[in-house]
Amino acid sequence: MIQKVLVGSIFLLILTAQPVLAGPCTQDINRVQAQVDARIGAVAGAGPTGPETNAALLHREPTPGSIAAAEQRLGEGRPMEAALAALARARTADDAGDRAACERALADARQATSP
């Protein structure tokens, strides 16, 4: 019984500590990631199709990165790849607490996804 209470208390402590660990622009990164994901979906739905990969045949769900890579192979992915790279830079800056660098990277991601 004590072990269950202890495990539950630790779990609750971890859940409440997560917001404290967020960087200065974590919420902005999440918003831009959603925009990039939506743009990748729109580009993927509008363009030509390609053959199914082995991963698709094994019932694995695509990730934004795998979709962007497939779009690039079809000649459509360059802006989305740039947006994903900018988001990676934003996360690195956010982890370091560098708000200015994070905002610059997010601006790059937004620019790469604009039509």
Overview features:
single chain; 115 residues; mainly alpha
The number of distinct β-strands equals 0
Integer count of domains? 1
Percent helix: over 70%
* Total count of helical runs of at least 4 residues: 6
Alpha carbon gyration radius: 19 Å
The average pLDDT is 77
Task: Briefly note the structural class of the backbone.
Answer: mainly alpha
Strand content: under 5%
Along the chain, the helix and strand elements come as: HHHHHH
Largest sheet: none
Query: Uncertain regions: pLDDT < 50 for 5+ in a row?
Result: none
Keywords: Signal
Signal peptide: 1-22
Layout of strands and helices, then pairs:
Blueprint (H helix, E strand, L loop, with lengths): L1 H20 L4 H21 L7 H4 L6 H10 L4 H19 L2 H15 L2
Tell me briefly what this model is:
This protein has 115 residues and is mainly α. Helices cover 77% and strands 0% of the residues.
